[in-house]
Amino acid sequence: MLTAGIDIGSISTKAAVLADGKLLGSRVIFTGYNSEAAGKRVFEELLGELGMEAPAVRRIVSTGYGRNSVKFVDKAVTEIICHGTGAHFLNPLIRTVIDIGGQDSKAIVLDENGKVKNFAMNDKCAAGTGRFLEVMANALEADLDGFGEMSLKAERPAGISSLCTVFAESEVISLIAKGESRFNIIAGIHESIAARVSALANRVGIVPPVVMTGGVAKNAGVVKALEKKLGVPIEVSPFAQVNGAIGAAIIAAGLR
Amino acid sequence: MPQVLLYLLAKVKKLILHLKKQKKMKEIMTVYYMEAKSAGVGGRKVAWITSGGPVEPLIAMDVIPVYPENHGAMIGASKMGVGLCETAESMGYSPDLCSYARSDIACATVNGGPIGGLPRPDMLVCCNNICGTVLKWYEVQARYFDVPLFILDTPFCHVGFAEEAKRYVRKQLDEYINFLEKVCRKKMDHDRMKEVGKLSLEGQRLWQAVLDTTANRPAPMSAFDAFYHLALIVTLRGTPVVVEYYAQLLAKMKDRVVKGIGAVPNEKYRLLWDNIPIWPRTRWLSQKFAAHDACLVADTYTSAWCGTMKYIDENNFFDSMAEAYTRIYLNIGVDEMSRIVVGMVDKYQVDGIVMHSNRSCKPYSLGQYDIQRIVEKERGIPSLMIEADMVDERSFSESQVATRIDAFMEVIKQRKS
């Protein structure tokens, strides 16, 4: 049976198609201002890539911030359950999922069956989210994709003390003015995110093994800073960014 | 007195008399605010008092108590909080200050809000058992209106209640009476005080009995209903109207229990609410939870106005209220708070706790993570933290809160399946 998951986030929209529990393909696009159109487009593009027609897909589950905006799905489920399910599917031993998305970061503790035991989400603040990194990349006129690599070249991460994205941005600008190296500033930004997210994760109680999902997991610098802060190794799957969509597709398979 | 004033007074009195016959919340509150607003004309005095303050001596002295915090809730519920908070901020008050304080301070200067401002006070009574903000807030208002201020200092009860604290608070009650006698220029009638004490306790008992009906499945009312019915035990405690109203409400709830009528049509999940309501969003929240077949059956907030009955001596209300007013929910340590919450989890058989981390109310929000951890450890139920504010809607993000509630309900459903 073919099932699909569509994860409409604040920055990017992801889709995954599964055939009887096997991942056939996935796709990521920018969400833009119209989340409904993005959900539709990513699904159609993925089907086109796989050479399939929409009616072939039996069930679809949507998730993410735009989950309720797409009308052609069978059910909308929150990111918490989808990321938990996706992480368990990719590695059943995983007990903690740290997901850093565009506007939310979350820590999810799973039981041995992949059910969510507990979760915590960031407070009403952009610090410690993907959006925070985006703002910083703009301030540094750097490519976000290169952020991870660049931070690994840092000699001494710069201290960024402000908890607020806007104030942190002005801190970064003054560090640039002082002539601080870009590598050190980026590493400092990663440490600031790690500090924020580890507080969240500790609140819910980390149980290893830990996996990181969401687009920010592609950034090796954030992963390294988080590992250092939490004192546990963190796995990153090559499907980190589409993990929520995969989870949604698995939930779709279980729908009656 | 000019003819026109006499005419208006007669009109108001007639209307009040008419409304008094009706035992509905809206009418009772309308009468209450009309009486308060026309107090000066009728020769009565008005005192502004904090929500946790001992109101009974005011009632016994025939002073009309007015609650800026109740007013704050009304401002929040009518979605007028943001405008008033902005006014206060332009006066120089920090956005980090309590939104009840900000809206009240602003409202006094512009006579805005849903009822055109509160009636001018003749005195202020401030009890710090609920928070420390009220001290500065009431000092500001005392200066603004140029009226006398009485401060009742209730030491924080980290563990238990020391004999020294008891004596300290009890001594201040005498000073409170002296203050009232001086401002009102009459002596306290202690027999009347006893009567008021009895009525207060009776009102509290009935309110607790009303809240207890939600231990039934399905719960005949929800915490959102309790937020509404609460107004009387806060504002008119110690008067007969409260006793009548809650006696009627109790009968109504008992009837719903017998008939099996629930507040949420298909109650499957039962939740406990912690902290002051998010007033501008109570309807949205109520519908949001109901859509998940979840009923918020109880809360730590409305039960605070009947939570210290065990310390009250029915035959000696005046002396015993020193302890009762000091040991309220917000003036005790986190360990005792947790015990109360665990007790409520058992009593109302809830599946989870919804905590409002209230940007305005620091004493209520501090310790929530500890309580969450303790309850989770002792009863194994999950809890959700919603970050918002009781009045200031600028601190509320609908889609973020919706996602957290949806995810929380999914977890509860997974656990119960």
| Strand order, sheet with most strands of chain A | 3-2-1-4-5
The strand count of chain A comes to 10
Low-confidence stretches of chain B: none
Number of helices of chain A: 8
Rounded Rg of chain B: 21 Å
Percent helix of chain A, as a range, is 25-40%
Number of strands of chain B: 8
Task: Give the termini distance of chain A in whole angstroms.
Answer: 13 Å
Major beta sheet summary of chain B? 4 strands, parallel
Structural class of chain A: alpha/beta
Biggest pleated-sheet summary of chain A: 5 strands, mixed
| CATH domain class of the largest domain in chain B | Alpha Beta
CATH topology of the largest domain in chain B: Rossmann fold
Q: Judging from the principal axes of the Cα atoms, what is the shape of chain B?
A: globular
Number of domains of chain A: 2
Unreliable spans of chain A: none
Tell me which protein chains meet in the greatest interface and how many residues each side has: A-B, 17 and 19 residues
- CATH topology tier name of the largest domain in chain A: Nucleotidyltransferase, domain 5
Distance between the termini of chain B: 72 Å
Percentage of residues in strands of chain B: 5-15%
Order of helices and strands of chain A: EEEHEEHEEEHHHHEHEH
